[in-house]
Amino acid sequence: MVQRRAVTATLAVSALLLTAGCSSDDGPQPTTPTSSPTTSAPSTSPSKGAAKEPAPPAKGSVEVVRTVAEDLDTPWGLAPLPEGGLLVSSRDQGTITRIDTESGKKTELGEVPGVAAAGEGGLLGLAVSPDYASDHMIYAYFTSESDNRIVRMLYDPQKPEGEQLGAPDTILRGIPKGTNHNGGRIAFGPDQMLYAGTGERYEGPLAQDKKSLGGKILRMTPEGEPAPGNPFDNSLVYSYGHRNVQGLAWDSKQRLWASEFGQNTWDELNQIRPGGNYGWPEVEGKEGKPGYIDPVAVWSVDDASPSGIAIAEGSVWMAGLKGQRLWRIPLRGTKVSADPQPFLEGEYGRLRTVVSAGGDKLWLTTSETDGRGSPEKGDDKILELQVK
């Protein structure tokens, strides 16, 4: 395989020295002194049951099996369909396309009305209804002219190509929008509630304001109402103090994990607890300050700038944009059990979204056409990976 860019050194399992820099979604910024990816337990102890969980499976590497699809325009959200195939959103075009995972054939469902693509905003995350077999609903998170919002649409594959999306039903509006830090990841959890990662549009205090939807992880019913059991009365807010969350995934014990962009020093992987305050803008990375929950792992922003995450074979797999690599973070309970390992460094450029394909398989999208990459022939791609 020809690498996209020269790799100047071989990365060991314990990881190389890392260079810090910015990380809205990246972009060149002044650097700070080097340091290595580090891990820690959360600031409060996990339960005894979690501590006694067995070590993760031995599978600890990943390889690209094949290219599923190519020539995609600014792919962002990726959602497997129960009957097979993948839905992928185009951030800049505002369209949703179905990918046949066997042939790579692309079928455009249609354009989502109201998408206003600019900067990091546009048509972002996708999710498929937990009742898809009966309702055929697709959920989308997008940037409009005035805000970020979540809609649901009926998907009818029997209609002509380009006309398969029904009129959008807006279930949530008013998420703060900006040129950057729009969040955008949505996913249904094991509880069949819809979760959304949002950004603080470069206004740090919004992340600490529990009345704002910015800089949060939100939890809602499929109709967009505050979900039963949320930590704050009559509120969508599930956790707060986030800068820009673009990765959500659940482990085998139904615990929620989230990736988050740092500012100048530390990108984060967090284990999310209901009502937890994750510190931004008062804290970046692990500072051990009372009242804030520390991340379980941090990276230099030059080596991660994390977007999507997935969990497979006992590890979190985290896609890096500026870092141009896929990170493996092995788990044991609520702790990281070993140093994170990087894979695919520089081979495919910027990596945006990773989702489970079941068992030991992953789907991974590249993000070279988003205005910050160096697109080559065939970009952007969806890749099939196998965990070994």
From TrEMBL:
Gene3D superfamilies linked to this entry: TolB, C-terminal domain (2.120.10.30)
Q: Which organism is it from?
A: Streptomyces neyagawaensis
Q: One GO molecular function term?
A: oxidoreductase activity
| Protein's UniProt keywords contain Cytoplasm | no
Does the record carry Coiled coil as a key word? no
Q: Where is the signal peptide?
A: 1-25
Q: Give the organism's phylogenetic lineage.
A: Bacteria, Bacillati, Actinomycetota, Actinomycetes, Kitasatosporales
Show the InterPro entries listed in the entry: 6-blade_b-propeller_TolB-like (IPR011042), Glc/Sorbosone_DH (IPR012938), Quinoprot_gluc/sorb_DH_b-prop (IPR011041)
Occurrences of domain Glucose/Sorbosone dehydrogenase (ranges): 72-372
Q: What is this protein called?
A: PQQ-dependent sugar dehydrogenase
Entry-linked SUPFAM superfamilies: Soluble quinoprotein glucose dehydrogenase
Provide this UniProt record's keywords sorted from A to Z: Oxidoreductase, Signal
Q: What is its EC number?
A: 1.1.5.-
| Listed Low complexity bias regions | 28-61
Top EC class, one word: oxidoreductase
Instruction: Name the Pfam families on file.
Output: GSDH
Q: Which residue ranges does the record annotate as region Disordered?
A: 20-61, 364-388
Biased composition (Basic and acidic residues) is annotated at: 369-388
